[in-house]
Design goal:
The protein is of the alpha/beta class and 325 residues long. It has two domains: 219 residues, Spore Coat Polysaccharide Biosynthesis Protein SpsA, Chain A, CATH 3.90.550.10; 72 residues, Hexapeptide repeat proteins (UDP N-Acetylglucosamine Acyltransferase, domain 1), CATH 2.160.10. The protein is built from eight helices and 21 strands. A hairpin with a 2-residue loop joins strand 2 and strand 3. The chain is elongated and about 75 Å long.
Length: 325
Amino acid sequence: MKVIIPVAGAGTRLRPHTHTTPKVLISVAGKPMIGHILDQLIGLPIDQIVMVVGQMGDQIKEYVSGNYKFKVRYIIQQEAKGLADAIYLTREAVKKDDALVILGDTIFSTDFKKLLSKKNSQIGVKEVSDPRRFGVVEHHHGKITKLVEKPEHPQSNLAIVGIYLMKDMPRLYRAIGTLMEKNIRTKGEYQLTDALQLLIDRGQTMETFAVDGWYDCGKPETLLDTNRQLLDLYPQKSAKIKGAVINSPVSIDSCARIENSVIGPYVSVAAGSRIKNAIISDTIIGKNACLESIMLQKSIIGDNAVVKGKQRKLSVGDGSEVDIS
């Protein structure tokens, strides 16, 4: 079994963080997004992981090789032509093998052992309250009949979450080749959903499987929401830090230094960061950041950033009203 993970996306909605860091290396709940994904694959019968990387692919390679023992092949997508194009670039690496395709910018939890035992190709789905925001599947008794991207009048509430089990990769590569030959693009790019719809139209059986945990990391607000959810789901034991108040749940790397501060709830602090005289909640702090004399909430602080405020001394009389902006 091969695993294909496209991680070449620019992550424009997470700028400025993605100007210098690949989207999948942005930390959430104490670990880069790609780390949460790879953790799910440990122990599965995987021959090789094929990652499609972009301009900052060396950073991804360094993180993966330094933290995991998977056999990984890296393929560079030189030009952003869409997800289907990224998959097409893997055809020499995957060839005739079955493949598990996992989008690299979404964190999830599912039973992969059960999934890999399926006979037919599978698309992971989850019920959502507003299907108009997502690509959705229409199906009959579990067999997919149609894939629709952000429908105005959805006939289904099953959103596509970004996990695909493909039982016949050569057929998928041929379908993508058809898109390219006929220049069939959606929003200017070759889309995987268009290729999968071609396969369905050509008679290939595809089924749905339910994904229980699906955590979006596409925008700052959803990244922070995912940080909160994962810290609630997987609470980490926080060491007592002298001179600091820690309000769980939090994730604080053992190499971070905290002094005279209140941290949490829902704060992730990466290695090497220094925090002094601060009150911080609902925030993600990257590696080697420096925060001093500041109050923060609902914030994302990148690697090596320096954020400093001012300390004030006040003598306020009875009935006074003070607004310090």
